[in-house]
Amino acid sequence: GDGAVREARTRPRISKQDIMDKYNSERGATKEQLHMVVIGHVDAGKSTLMGRLLLELGQVSKKTMHKYEQESKKLGKQSFVYAWILDETGEERSRGITMDVGQSKFETKSKQVTLLDAPGHKDFIPNMITGATQADVALLVVDATRGEFETGFESGGQTREHALLVRSLGVSQLGVVVNKLDTVGWSQDRFQEITSKLSAFLRQAGFKESDVTYVPCSGLTGENMVVKPTAADLTSWYTGPCLIDVIDGFKTPERPITKPFRMSVNDIFKGMGAGFCVSGRVETGMVQPGDKVLVSPLGETAFIKVLMVDDMPIQTAFAGDCVSATISGMDQQNISVGNILCEPQRPIPITSRFQARIVIFQLRVPITKGYAVVLHHQSLVEQAVICKLVGQLHKSTGAIIKQKPRCLIGNSIALVELEVSRPICLELYSDIKELGRVMLRVGGVTIAAGLVTKVY
Ligand code: GDP
Fold this sequence. Notes:
Layout: H1 3-7, H2 16-27, E1 32-39, H3 46-56, H4 62-75, H5 80-89, E2 103-107, E3 111-116, H6 124-134, E4 137-143, H7 148-153, H8 158-168, E5 173-179, H9 188-204, E6 212-216, H10 232-235, H11 243-248, E7 262-264, E8 267-270, E9 276-284, E10 286-287, E11 292-296, E12 300-309, E13 312-313, E14 317-318, E15 322-328, E16 340-342, E17 350-360, E18 371-377, E19 380-393, E20 400-403, E21 412-425, E22 437-442, E23 445-455
Parallel strand pairs: 1-3, 1-4, 4-5, 5-6
Antiparallel strand pairs: 2-3, 7-9, 7-16, 8-9, 9-15, 10-14, 11-12, 11-16, 12-13, 12-15, 17-21, 17-23, 18-19, 18-22, 19-20, 19-21, 22-23
The structure holds guanosine-5'-diphosphate.
Guanosine-5'-diphosphate (GDP) binds next to helix 3.
GO biological process, one term: regulation of translation
Keywords: Cytoplasm, GTP-binding, Hydrolase, Nucleotide-binding, Phosphoprotein, Protein biosynthesis, Translation regulation
Protein name: HBS1-like protein isoform X1
């Protein structure tokens, strides 16, 4: 038979300290990963800001830049150049749930940052939700221009909505970019007026003051983005960090390497030798070649033969790594995208009924009991039904304001029970964030995103 199967073993449990030592010796030198979503009112300058940032950090080739400059000159819209950079990188789509989330990467001193979503797109909000469900931190961009900040901040403006939304989805650290400050002559008074209004609101929305940083910027002029400011009107009163330092200063989520092993299957393909390959992200724990794994909710066991990251074999895959694994000991026909590989002794919970705290976006028809949705969990897509409306929640405090509502309307937050057409793997958000987030879609439109609060 198969050598790998004979050699395969159930790895004896390694102590937490040993796992951490192993991680430090194998990965100590690599940068921490951070997933960031950019939010804010339309026209706040999000695309310009991020496009400019990628440009300043050398992520855009001269050739591409030249092409955009020519095109934008023709249109007489030179300022569009930066926004186009984002649209371009936004074309590199990844699979499954992140399908409509464009991703671009850049590095700071200590971090590798993945920018989620392509804010330049006009159907921005559904994309933003997708991005927000995967974000560790958020950048909130506000337009400092007189009248414009106020428009975005009023009820109905997206500044409040987006901030509440990301907070509801578990994001606790926020960088606030007070953008376009060039339009008000870098006025310190204006900066203070905006930050004081926002900080009162953000505190109420559940952000800790110590987790919010304000930074004056201009995406258009590039002021205070990657180097200390030079504009005298700004340097006369501002001595704080520039944007890249604010991003560098975010706390990265801990890699849950000592938790039980779980890896989502995002793709399955034929390998080079015997067996087949699956690719996906190790969400928690660690795995090594030779390990026996349980394929859930299927219930079959298999063996890990080889692990690769970026086409290079590795000794150990840790939480946070995107890997491809050669698998043996099971039939390729039986495994499917959305399955979770896990540790046989400490398997992932399997359920077809659970409770979630959901943020509801726009709806054509209010949600009532029996409302059918398509549930997205990692790369898994399943039919589901909202079978119980437990309560409607207060938007900023999260307290129940109405028990057992008859219906739920758009732009609200609620606690609901969902029933899936067949059992799926799920974790509580409080246990494992990445496996405790779900999205609900109807007809290809995201109508809600949520956190798993109870598994039955
Ligand atoms: P988005 O909708 O938030 O992505 O905003 P855009 O990046 O598309 O910018 C909206 C408009 O604001 C465009 O016309 C930009 O040229 C302009 N703009 C963006 N950033 C700045 C800035 O820092 N200063 C000034 N004066 N204008 C800006």
